[in-house]
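Response to reviewer comment R2.3. The reviewers asked that we include at least one raw input/output pair. We reproduce the pair for Large ribosomal subunit protein uL18 here without editing.
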Amino acid sequence: MALSKTDRRNRLRFRIRKTISGTAQRPRLAVFRSNKEIYAQLIDDVSGKTITAASSRDKDIDASKVNKVEAAKLVGKAIAEKAVKAGVDAISFDRGGYLYHGRIKSLAEGAREGGLKF
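Raw output as returned:
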């Protein structure tokens, strides 16, 4: 029997998480994509703390009234700005089981433009 879409994504997600882990010097940029919004957070897995987060629901991004791919790029730039303020310049990118395509790719490109290295 075929896996459901969420089961397949979770299987991919756990496979990715076996190899990717965040530290204080190189945190993990975790991405969650819903049908309407996109969320990103920098996580230090050693201490179990979220360093910073950004989403398409933030006031400045939500007010820009752009399509979802462009909003994802703005989220990437926003998380990069917050990361640089927190003293982080290198990250591990955790795509969360999603294909590196569309909004996920746009978020990653925005984070790179904002100054993050991965």
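The chain has four helices and four strands. The mean pLDDT is 92. Further pairs are available on request from the corresponding author.
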